[in-house]
Amino acid sequence: MRRTTVIFIAVIGVLALIVDFWPRLRLPGLDPDAGSRLIETKLGLDLQGGLKVEYRVNPVGDRTPGLADLEIVRGIIEARVNSTGVAEPVVVTSGTDRVVVELPGVTDTGTVRQLVGQTGRLDFVPIPVGTTVNAGQALDLTAVTECAGTGTVTTLCILFSGDQLDSATLGQDKNGGRAVNFNLKDRGEQLFAAFTAAHVNEQFAIVLDSVIISAPSITQAITGGTVQITNEGTIGGMPQQEATNLVNVLRFGSLPFPVEELSSDTIDPTLGKEFLDKSILAGAIAVGLVLLFMLTHYRLPGVVAGVALLYYALVLFAVFRLIPVTLTLAGIAGFVLSVGMAVDANILIFERSKEELRLGKSLPQAIEAGFARAWNSILDSNVSSLITASILYFFGSSVIQGFALVLILGVLVSMFTAITVTRTILRVVVAQDWARKARLYGISEAEFVYRPTGRAAIRRGATPGV
Amino acid sequence: MFDVIGKKRWFFAFSLLITIPGLIFILLTPISGGEAGLKFSIDYTGGTTWSIKFADATVTAEDVRAELATLGQPDAVVTKTGKGFFDIRLSKLDLRGVEPTPTPVPTVVPTPSAAPSSSASPAASITPAPSATAAPTTTPAPSATTAPSGSPEASASPTPSGSAAPTGSPEPTAIPGSNTQVPTTGEIGRIATALQEALGPISEQASLSSIGAVVSSDLINQAVILILVGSLGILGWITLRFRDVKMGVTALVALLHDVIVVLGFFAILGTLFNVEIDGLFVTAMLTVIGFSVHDTIVVFDRVRENKVRHAGEPFAEIVNHSLLQTFGRSITTSFTVVLTLTALLLFGGSATEEFVLALLIGIVSGTYSSIFNASPLLVVWQEWEDRRRGRLAAPRAPRRASA
After folding, report:
1. Residue A27 to chain B, least CA–CA distance (Å)
2. CATH class of residue range A50-118+255-267
């Protein structure tokens, strides 16, 4: 059984080393369609610089956005962000009504913000007879109501809005020219059929945020809900940019709920780099100090604990890269803190072992007793940390969650490394001849017993007078 | 043998000495309306922080403050940091670019007569898509709209976005020498432009954060709730594991001690040096709660063990002995954490300074309260309970450790 533990530890160690240091390693992701995923260290916005904006999705009238609506809004915002060509944007939902957009490296905030933040109210508007409108023209729809649109249109009204749009794609007209196709949902289909039947050769407009995007004329009644906008008479059909623009507007133009910008953060990339360098330096110093302390205070077991600590750092880093956990400043602080906490278990064990040695137990017995007796304290301590870290993780904001996740993973990994790994190495080391010296354990020769003695002797020794 | 329990009054007194001034400063916060006591960052109050550097190194914080006052920001807080950056704190601004203002068109469509139609599209027409099965068979006539093409006016009006190419409103004139990251749009853009006109170009912008009142309003309540839930979680766990509500409650009291010490310390720092607590502060508090109970657990674990071993001995002696046995390891475990946190504090940079400081104070306080508050309190409670039980069980109640 011990043999399998040794093999297990070795395998985990090798895997961690591969994940940590193999350049451009790719592993299959959880989602089989997404293909393999590049294993890399994800850095938060505060460490690489960029723009972060938090939006709240607001209710419309008596409709409150549910989680499904939140996901739709997130999807639309993500599509809008992607259309700007920003590298590796992160768009996530947070809580019940928040969408957080993170754009690493972006510091020119104006355009992105303007694009993402707008509600994008999309309307289909019949144009009154005798009026001609153009794309790009403003059309004030704030005080305008819905209408059936079957009679003669005299004033502006809205036939239906973007929520009746089903899908939009680039297509081809009958001459092979570029065109835009879109599909309507049931209500939109009926309204549009009735409207187009009564208004052939009249104009209608697709309006986004009170600006006309396209103002085609109706050539015939359209009953199937499947609509095509063409530019016949032009070679090649609609110009490429106009067509893509129109498809994008039809697809992503309209958010079902308005969004409101709650907070934003812009961090200069050089500042982020500075933070990263500093925290790595601080982390290295912290680990170094802990190793030095363990070595001077506990001698040989301290060295073993040091090895286990390095093993811990390697495994935890590999876990961060695998999941992946986005490292932020607070996350790195959590990592460094967890290093301090990871040796706690070792300290509890070694102190207890020392005590048992002084009570007259032999070295191997004392070490086993140290592990056995310290277990309760270690478990209770770690569970306490897990309780508070979990509360932070489940109820905190995204920055807090990053810290909490690092702490949770740190505690879990340290339970394995500080106990199993340390014990396994220590058992091997203690069995060696050169390891049987009292000064290697920081106690006096008189207190040191290497060979196991009879049980009775231990019992007597283990009951100290108070 | 050192008698911790016997000297418990001294240790309680010392805790009071530390917590009472802190409590006074904490209470100053609501009394003074935020003038003294805890200082909250924009995470809690809402607002804008902006870190910039002017090309002209002779610009002083007073210059910036005076200029901001003329720009409608009389309450702006400006501090100059080490590398020539100014940390500026403003009330909440709208950072968004100026949205294209919808042209106020009366009710009907503008320019019915002369307007040439459709900018880029000579003849946009609409038909059923060819794929549709329901498509009517009548061939649409080559679009009937009269459409002279190539209207120049389209370029003048803002292109609607939601598409690949948002152009936005007309660009404000850029200040020569200004960093490209400096905002030019929105209210902050107006301030940035005015500042640069008065004080010369801004050469670098380290960060710009803005938080609305909506995010922050519920944050303080949320923090209090998180800390309460965390404390109750610990109380539940300790009570469950040690099967003794006394241990749970005394551990909780020690935790509250630590929370007050850290909060009080920051209230004093806030009053004297304007040190602010930010969104991460609640994280530090909960981490302290989770960690400082470690030492309490180690002592209580040993108390439980010794109670079995030394059944019949006075409880105070059992606890005192357990304290001394675990003293070394309590100090050592806290020491390693203090070591790592000190390294972070000294070398980790300014961004996490307050966070690490809060952790450091909390953990030192946690070690003290575990040893010198939680355990003596446990003894006080146990002895009180024994006395009461003794009175109830009349003449000769055996003094025993509770089962």
Report:
1. 33
2. alpha beta
